[in-house]
Fold each of these.
Amino acid sequence: MAETIRTVLETKRFSVVLRSYHTPDGRQHTRETIQHPGAVTVIPMVDDDHVCLVRNYRVAVDQTLIELPAGTLEPGEDPAITAVRELAEETGYRAGQLKLLCDFAISPGILNEQMYLYVATELEPGETSLDQGEIIDTLVVSWSEAMRMVDAREINDAKTLVGLMAYDRLRAAS
């Protein structure tokens, strides 16, 4: 339905494009949108009651946030491959089992990024391999502590909130 008019900005991870579309009244409108290849986030369950979170410095908000490990898909990459790579890079863990829990639009008002949420279990520890410029360290907490952090608003990263709350509902149903 929407048609790209022109690319306004091209970067390594995303582009900003001017897109045109028509409303039901026949009028044409244009909007700037961010085009992104998609990303993954992973819930690394160290055991049945402990999850590995990360403290991740985010330059865009100039804060260190408590998050689930995550990363951007390479063009054409299977999200499961990205999940395995990002889990190992950011936490050192290798997953024996990886299961897709859901996927969701991260901010569809301006961004086409699709986020794929995985649960990783049967973890084996290993060495991290952070990308240049990343400032990340791990934080293993009990599940109840992670949920307390959500309730206390100590976690305010959207993908992490979605992931923890979605998995908490699944845990409660089991």
Amino acid sequence: MNHTDERDDATLVGDTLAGHPHAAAALVHRWTARILALCHARLRRRDVAEDMTQDTFLKAFRSLHTLSDRTRFGSWLLGIAMRNCLDWIKKRQNGQRSFSTLGDDRTFDGLIAPEDDSGVISPEQRCRVIAEIHELPEDHRQVIMLFYYDELTYRQAAELLGVSTATINARLTRARCLLRERLADCRR
């Protein structure tokens, strides 16, 4: 499979419906990290977010024939993911659970400065940052996760969430400010 498939979503959807498995794989490759980041931000548990991401793709491919505007595949997929997350939350009797940590392959460089001159964020700092991210309001948590976790640009995040780049900028600025305040309180 070509991991940098340049075909647009609409073309890939059409090819998937025509029975080309490489097109479906390209859609999964293109959208998995984004859906995972949004599910993780919504559910606050990586393990459940991974399950919801897989379930999202299963439901999407089963009902792909119902997608009327193939150019809207991403927002349609996001809608499926958010409904999955809401359904999971509703099924939980005790509400929100503790958040599992992000894998070692994800960083939030730029959110906080290292405590020493090494330029490296300590595991303790990383845990504090992640814990504070999980406490942010959902719209702020989403942009932080998309920007740092999935490394989306402002424009990509705006398109995915259906808002303007100015809104993304405002949310990201506010989220960073909240994190700095909360992390500064932790050091006192």
Amino acid sequence: MHELLANKLAALSIAIDDRMDAGALRSRSAAAALQTLRYWGPLTATELARILGVSQPTMVRVVGGLISQRLAKRRGKQARSVAIELTAAGRGEAGRLQRARLAGVAKLLRAHDAEQARSFEVSMDLLLSAVTDGRAAARRICRFCAHDICDGPACPVGARATALEGEFQEKPRGDIRA
């Protein structure tokens, strides 16, 4: 029924993905780690790996690269539970990548007039809410997001994750339904 629309949306996702990569001079995992640490850090490599959906060895290599480039540093001395935080240079690079990402995607949105943009935003909110099945998914979906722009009720992903948490907490203890 929606095959043509699905195909077009898939093509658009590739175009958006290409625009997001345009400003990145590093791997997507490194860019995502920078953005995640910018808004949610400091975090351990294990926490970063879980949020970004990559393996622990991959995240250790990514973090090692960020540290060697002086974009991040270790906080503390315990090997397994050391938190990683951004340096001033890392915060600057995260900001640069974020601006490049938003500028690249904003060019695509210029195809809409004001009314079309609002309608598209409503559709995007519905789709983003539909793909959010919990807090972990929300963090993964929003790993490149500018959380200072899209936060609280303005964020359909975070709002859906919060609603799901509320639904889960409101169920009686003996209730085993999903």
